[in-house]
Amino acid sequence: NAGVTQTPKFQVLKTGQSMTLQCAQDMNHNSMYWYRQDPGMGLRLIYYSASEGTTDKGEVPNGYNVSRLNKREFSLRLESAAPSQTSVYFCASSEYYRNYGYTFGSGTRLTVV
Amino acid sequence: KQEVTQIPAALSVPEGENLVLNCSFTDSAIYNLQWFRQDPGKGLTSLLLIQSSQREQTSGRLNASLDKSSGRSTLYIAASQPGDSATYLCAPEDDNYGQNFVFGPGTRLSVLP
Hints:
The complex is a heterodimer of chains A (113) and B (113). With 113 residues, chain A is mainly beta. Chain A has strands spanning 4-7, 10-13, 19-25, 31-38, 42-49, 56-57, 64-68, 74-78, 87-94, 103-104, 108-112.
């Protein structure tokens, strides 16, 4: 099925370890986004890529880096994981121009111990 | 900064009832508003997207309205079913970070058989 695919679905890291969350979409969307969802905080934007070749910070970018590898793929990297980064991470994509909504991936549940 | 609130935070109704979920946002200069459904431990599923030029959008038993000038949207669910039990999130499109949707905290709905 067409959509947004995230890997892995679950991950446990030790404090200080690094990892990359992968996201790919097959809808030819121009824009891609990374959100984190925490209890009581809702979804907050970490980074986004308005179009291939560009990336920008969102509301909560500290501790993360991103790469827009090509039009399909947008990865999120934690260089030195901290317990505060325990969260559920969602990738989303959309058409660049207005009047199109988001399609979300199924999420990655990350626990940092 | 766009702030989104949703009332009620939680709702429990018997099967068959019609119900209304409310969403308010502080910045009325939005382009679109999207309603999502999230099942426990799962990702977000798009329900309806209301474009800025529209006042309402319908899909099956769901009807969403948008009043930009007053900063409000409502999601109407007709003849509720136990399968409608989920958290419902509204997300107006914001202009602060590209084409970014800002998410409300959600309304947790339980439909009792």
